[in-house]
């Protein structure tokens, strides 16, 4: 039964509940209709945020998990079906990077930072993945594919103004043909990019020890990245700037069979446009890009 936008789940003893710990995260899972669901007990505003950014991801054709708003024994939650249907081994980036701390220490030349522990960044991840998959028969191709998927996720997170750029939120399904899980965990989206809001990211564009604003991090990203990724970033931004928010809300309302209160809608899109336009201003002119390419 769905009531006021929430799927009502009554399970007096939550018999099937299982706790899990994964990387730095823990929580509970429940079984429903033979399927396993991850549960996050959250307040209403976080719940709508997860639903909203899921739709943004779908709009940009970025893989995402599907969230369902639910009330479990009276407590509000957001639940999602386990994306690891075949129960294959998984590793989040936190686990992979921690394992390779010694490797990083042995190669200070590869990791241009004094404090590796705190300074994971896109380049570090690339080196560590190459090492992690060193025995894979097609390691270069595989790491390139994973990096493309990680970059897509990274770009999505930064244009969603996610304040929780966090390596436990990046999971690799680590079977014979490893691939990245769909994106998830959007409850801190929309927060980064507020004026003077320093980032506190685990995952950075480049190694840096200073607190950066969201815009500064994106600028770093643009300074060091391949044109392909820069085009991709601005392609997403151009699509988001013309986004019809009513259409996004209609999709959520269709799913939860409930009309989202106006204050929640306003809150979700507050400053979003403004922030996107700020990033858009960082777009290098094509002349400048050409020059960089010629040098390269
Ligand atoms: N649908 C899902 N399928 C598989 N694993 C999931 C799913 N949802 C969450 N998880 C696991 O649970 C962890 C915590 O979920 P997340 O949404 O990141 O919550 P938190 O806000 O507590 O970080 C994730 O890092 C992931 O390992
Ligand atoms: Mg998380």
**DSSP strand content:** 15-25%
Instruction: Give Rg in angstroms.
Output: 20 Å
Order of strands across the main sheet? 1-2-6-7-5-4-3
Average pLDDT taken over every residue? 88
Please provide the ordered H/E string of secondary-structure elements. Answer: EEEEEHEEEHHEHHEEEHHHHHH
Number of domain modules: 2
Q: Report the strand count.
A: 12
Name every ligand kind in the structure.
adenosine-5'-diphosphate, magnesium ion
End-to-end distance: 59 Å
Largest sheet: 7 strands, mixed
Helicity level: 40-55%
Briefly say what this structure is:
With 296 residues, the protein is an alpha+beta fold. 43% of the residues lie in helices and 17% in strands.
Q: How are the SSEs placed, and which strands pair?
A:
Layout: E1 2-3, E2 6-9, E3 18-22, E4 25-32, E5 35-41, H1 44-59, E6 67-72, E7 75-81, E8 90-92, H2 93-99, H3 101-106, E9 120-121, H4 122-132, H5 139-159, E10 171-173, E11 179-180, E12 203-204, H6 214-224, H7 227-241, H8 245-256, H9 262-269, H10 272-280, H11 286-295
Helix pairs in contact: 1-8, 4-5, 5-7, 7-10
This protein binds adenosine-5'-diphosphate (ADP) and magnesium ion.
Adenosine-5'-diphosphate (ADP) is lined by residues 22, 25, 27, 38, 40, 65, 80-84, 168-169, 171, 184-185, 187.
What does this structure look like?
It is a single chain. By secondary structure, this protein is of the alpha+beta class. Helix content is 43%, strand content 17%. The chain folds into 2 domains: 2-81, 2-Layer Sandwich (Phosphorylase Kinase, domain 1); 90-242 and 273-295. The protein has helices spanning 44-59, 93-99, 101-106, 122-132, 139-159, 214-224, 227-241, 245-256, 262-269, 272-280, 286-295; strands spanning 2-3, 6-9, 18-22, 25-32, 35-41, 67-72, 75-81, 90-92, 120-121, 171-173, 179-180, 203-204. The protein starts with a strand and ends with a helix. The chain binds adenosine-5'-diphosphate (ADP) and magnesium ion. Magnesium ion (MG) binds next to loops.
């Amino acid at each position: 039964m769905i009531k006021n936008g929430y799927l009502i789940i009554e399970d007096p003893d939550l018999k099937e509940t299982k706790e899990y710990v994964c990387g730095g995260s823990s929580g509970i899972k429940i079984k429903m209709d033979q399927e396993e669901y991850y549960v996050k007990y959250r307040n209403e505003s976080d719940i709508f945020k997860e639903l909203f950014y899921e739709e943004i991801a779908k709009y940009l054709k970025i893989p995402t998990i599907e969230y369902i708003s639910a009330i479990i024994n009276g407590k509000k939650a957001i639940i999602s079906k386990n994306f690891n249907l075949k129960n294959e081994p998984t590793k989040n980036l936190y686990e992979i990077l921690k394992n390779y701390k010694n490797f990083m220490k042995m190669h200070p030349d590869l990791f241009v930072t004094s404090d590796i522990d705190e300074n994971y960044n896109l380049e570090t991840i690339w080196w560590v993945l190459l090492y992690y998959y060193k025995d894979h028969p097609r390691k270069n191709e595989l790491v390139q594919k994973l990096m493309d998927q990680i970059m897509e996720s990274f770009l999505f997170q930064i244009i969603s103004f996610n304040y929780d750029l966090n390596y436990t939120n990046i999971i690799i399904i680590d079977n014979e043909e490893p691939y990245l899980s769909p994106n998830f965990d959007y409850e801190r989206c929309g927060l980064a990019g507020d004026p003077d809001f320093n980032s506190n990211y685990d995952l950075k564009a480049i190694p840096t020890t200073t607190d950066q604003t969201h815009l500064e991090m994106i600028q770093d990203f643009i300074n060091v990245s391949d044109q392909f990724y820069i085009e991709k970033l601005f392609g997403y931004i151009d699509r988001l700037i013309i986004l019809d928010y009513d259409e996004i809300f209609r999709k959520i309302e269709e799913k939860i069979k409930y009309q989202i209160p106006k204050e929640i809608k306003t809150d979700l899109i507050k400053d979003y446009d403004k922030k996107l336009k700020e990033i858009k201003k960082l777009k290098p002119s094509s002349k400048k890009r050409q020059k960089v390419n010629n040098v390269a």
